[in-house]
Amino acid sequence: MLSSTEPFEWGLGIGRAGISEQQRRLLHEASEFGLQNGFTVPIHDGRGPISAVTFATSTRHAIAFRQRVEEHRRVLQLMAMCFHAHVRRKLTSTRMIDGVQLSPRELECLEWAARGKTAWEIGRILGISRYTAASYLNNAKEKLGVRTIVQAVMRIAADKGVEQN
């Protein structure tokens, strides 16, 4: 189902010729949780399907649900794509500071350093060795082109000030 880029409706009341036994079981399980009918928008990127956004209802009246979906199909697709884009931005695994990409761990270590924590303390907090924490801090300093952790923290603080517009 997600291999297609087209949105699709699903539910026990919606005849889907050729669905597998596994798909049929999934529909039955969904109905046990109160999800009777749905409209799913597959989200694809250049590598294929990566996620899906589903609008679902607990009503057993598939006809009324299908009418609403048909009336608002394009709006629902747009909402799904906007929601996905927003979530993807929030969950991105890296952070750009003045065009420099920091890993989540480098950023996390810098944020703890900004709170006055040493590499040893950061290691304890994150469950890593102090040497690993120091390595993340050193990598971040090198990427940001600064000599000290204080300078790196200041670059992050300055970037956050710009980011909050």
List the helices and strands and how they pair.
Elements: E1 8-11, H1 21-32, E2 37-45, E3 48-57, H2 62-90, E4 95-97, E5 100-102, H3 104-114, H4 119-126, H5 130-144, H6 149-163
Antiparallel strand pairs: 1-2, 2-3, 4-5
Describe this structure in words.
There is one protein chain. This protein is of the alpha+beta class. 55% of the residues lie in helices and 18% in strands. It is built from 6 helices and 5 strands. It has helices spanning 21-32, 62-90, 104-114, 119-126, 130-144, 149-163; strands at residues 8-11, 37-45, 48-57, 95-97, 100-102. Helix 3 (104-114) crosses helix 5 (130-144), helix 4 (119-126) packs across helix 5 (130-144) and helix 5 (130-144) crosses helix 6. The two termini are 40 Å apart.
Low-confidence stretches: none
Oligomer: single chain
Strand-and-helix sequence, N→C? EHEEHEEHHHH
Number of domains: 2
Helical amount? 40-55%
- Per DSSP E runs of 2 or more residues, the count of β-strands stands at 5
Strand line-up of the largest beta sheet: 1-2-3
